[in-house]
# Entry
Amino acid sequence: MEISVIAAQSLDGFIAKHDLPGTDFTSEADKLHFRRILQTFDSLIFGRLTYEVSRAAIRARLSPSLPRFVMTRNPRAWAGDAVYGQLEFVSDTPTALVARLRDRGFRRCAVLGGSQIHSLFLESNLIDTLIITIEPRLFGRGVPFLHQCIDANLRLESVERLPASDSLLVTYRLAKSPDV
Ligand SMILES: NC(=O)c1ccc[n+]([C@@H]2O[C@H](COP(=O)([O-])OP(=O)(O)OC[C@H]3O[C@@H](n4cnc5c(N)ncnc54)[C@H](OP(=O)(O)O)[C@@H]3O)[C@@H](O)[C@H]2O)c1
# Structure
């Protein structure tokens, strides 16, 4: 199973600006890239805080062809939002969740943040690629890309300028242990 983190960040490494939740800072070029790249995945994972910020938009786009899995320690609290096969709330470890998705036949999963979920999956050595839009912005403060200390080595796979923008799309690959 191929698992990718898809995110947009400021040049100084923040995925949300200052105290403002959400991704309003991202460029039109990134929004277009994001919509397109999601079509290449068969399952999406994000954290409960990211879900809450984008709840209305996520619920409006539910589809059995692209199920969403929301990580929370309290899935029962979200039972009213859950739609099996489209929007599921899970308290599994990342490793258990990935094993479950693999058993259900999913092959390409996008991890869509936020910071806590990026860290959880990277610490568990479950990520194959990071597909990151670097926006030409500096925030100084905000939600960082990662929530915890980590020391990971990456290999650059590609870098491109998103069309008609000053945004860079960079793809890095991580080494992954053979037993995952
Ligand atoms: N620019 C981007 O690309 C991008 C992408 C995504 C998000 N964001 C932004 O990032 C911010 C949210 O990021 P965040 O780091 O604060 O929150 P987050 O990662 O979206 O969600 C954190 C939540 O995930 C759940 N969680 C964490 N560890 C878990 C575990 N071991 N097992 C099960 N559930 C677990 C917990 O939910 P419970 O508290 O319910 O247990 C926790 O509160 C928002 O502002 C969002 O807009 C930006």
